[in-house]
Amino acid sequence: MAKFLLSLHVLASVLFIGPVAVAVSMFPRRAKAALAGGPDQASDAGVLGVLHRITQVYALLGVAVPVLGIGLAQVMDVLGQSWLIASMVLTAIAGLSLLLFVLPGQQAAVDALGLDPKDEQHTKAVGGLRMLPMTAGVFNLLWAVVVVLMIVRPGSTTGA
Asked: What is the tens place of the pLDDT at every residue in 116-149?
């Protein structure tokens, strides 16, 4: 059962968290181009909508990763180990950063598309873009640390 859950957990991580990480990383640059106008604005706006939708949908699907991880930890009897607790806390922080900062920032940028650059909503969205690259970086860094903890498992008593 542990190998089956581990396989599902890793597959879910790759298939669901990977696309979110990529979309979150690509979004700020494309948003800046789309909101600045220019010859490719329509194309940039379309890409922006797709990246935001990928972030939303795959983030929702990504909930399977911690759910499967908790099930796996129960089967392996490692729920109380420090490396796993740290991973769970970092996963929660990553999820909250996505929910509280990344997704609202993306939504504001998408909502500002097509507005007059003098419009307050447009100006606010452009100003909010300064935070998106940082929050994207923090989100991806947290997931990278979680992956390292899952592999290295410092202090693990499982012998791996």
From this structure: 777 777 777 777 788 899 999 999 999 999 999 9
Burial (CB count within 10 angstroms: exposed 0-12, middle 13-18, buried 19+), residue 31: buried
Reported as a pLDDT band with limits 50, 70 and 90, residue 160 is: low
**Tokens at 89, concatenated:** 């806390």
pTM of the model: 0.86
Query: Angle at CA 130, nearest 5°, toward 27 and 110?
Result: 45
* Amino acid at residue number 128: G
CA–CA–CA angle 98, 104, 109 (5° rounding): 125
* Longest Cα separation, the chain: 61
Cα separation, 84 vs 157, whole angstroms: 12
